[in-house]
Amino acid sequence: MFTLGTLMIQAFNLVFQNIGxxxxxxxxxxxxxxxxxxxxxxxxxxxxxLCDFISPKRMTLFGVSALVIGSLLGFFCSFNFWIVLIARMxxxxxxxVAGSVFLVMTVKYLNDKEKAIYIGIYNAVYYLAAAIGVFAxxxxxxxxxxxxxLVPAISMFFIPLLIKNTPDISAKGERIDGFGIALFAVFAxxxxxxxxxxxxxxxxAIVLLGIAFFAWILKGSKPFLSRSFVTNKAYxxxxxxxxxxxxxxxxxxxxxxVIGEQLYNMPLTTISLCLTLVYVVATIVGCxxxxxxxxxxxxKTLLVASVLMVVGFxxxxxxxxxGFWILTVLACVFIAGVTVVYTPIYDAASDALPVExxxxxxxxxxxxxxxxxxxxxAVYSSLIxxxxxxxxxxxxxxxxxxxxxxxxxxxxxxxSVLALILVLTFRKSFSTKRAx
Length: 436
Known about the structure:
Layout: H1 2-22, H2 31-50, H3 56-76, H4 81-109, H5 112-141, H6 159-165, H7 178-196, H8 200-219, H9 227-230, H10 233-245, H11 252-263, H12 268-296, H13 298-318, H14 324-352, H15 358-384, H16 401-425
């Protein structure tokens, strides 16, 4: 279910402009990509938190229902841009339930060895969905994009299995902090909106809501994030590390569109084929990341991941003019690093918190990952449009698009070096073991 829903993100990211053009809404076409992304950032946090209170079975059935409803709505109302946009938001919100439930069940109920393996599988499924989505988006859109909406509807056939196998376990005697969760959801949502549609009043609203939320943590009646949660040094250092690791995660795809089109005059189909290969590599690496953590330990795995990212970004900056296939290989190197990071971070974070707070911990991690990547995407957009970066590059790189993209890769490399330094600084945070 998570795969079927998630592959739509990359599929629609690839063809959103085609949809806008066909419906006479070219100027607003990007909303099909940005608004569902904002919804995803908020619901990741929301679902992870609710999994501490509500039965996984009820959560999953809600999710698959929303996914199917969004799919059918988008297909039958494909003649209206705004209904298509609403359908995509419903699809995204429905699909993420399965992902959040899977991840929370993994960190709560499995032993250390199994936990690392299944976190890795979850990560691999994400990249597998991305690979299928890039391919499906190009293929299905070649005859009629509306049929993309029907792909996730296949998940309705798995409802009997979900009912049979998903546990019906909920927190007994605990009251859901509805006000606190709603306050934090709005706060997180405004942050995501700000980096897509920046404005001064949004910034003021974010600051005021942030103050209100922290006041609620300190003075509220049983807030869903307790004072001990936000002062947990191990968890907070892991959260900071994740912010740096995933900062340029969303920028990895668009920079290759710029390189392919402006440096090598390649068609979009060829670029998407190369990116599909990169995602396939990420899928394979995700599958082995769990056993790698069990074999090497979290610390060594993170060091390997950091080095892969540094080598991949630095190599791309140096060899920017040496051929697109060389850059594709280097993209496979740094995407392997990004993929490997996921398992030890979530594994360590789950052990840094009490079991009953793992859902909230996973939700905040998901939110941080999406928020960090959104901020990084905004930074990338300003960098790739900055004319001063196109004047010259290091190691003999000429001016123009080559210098521009090479310099951006060096900045991405610098972020990875910072992540490596933070791994060494907070190494104690990754040695915490969950209390039995």
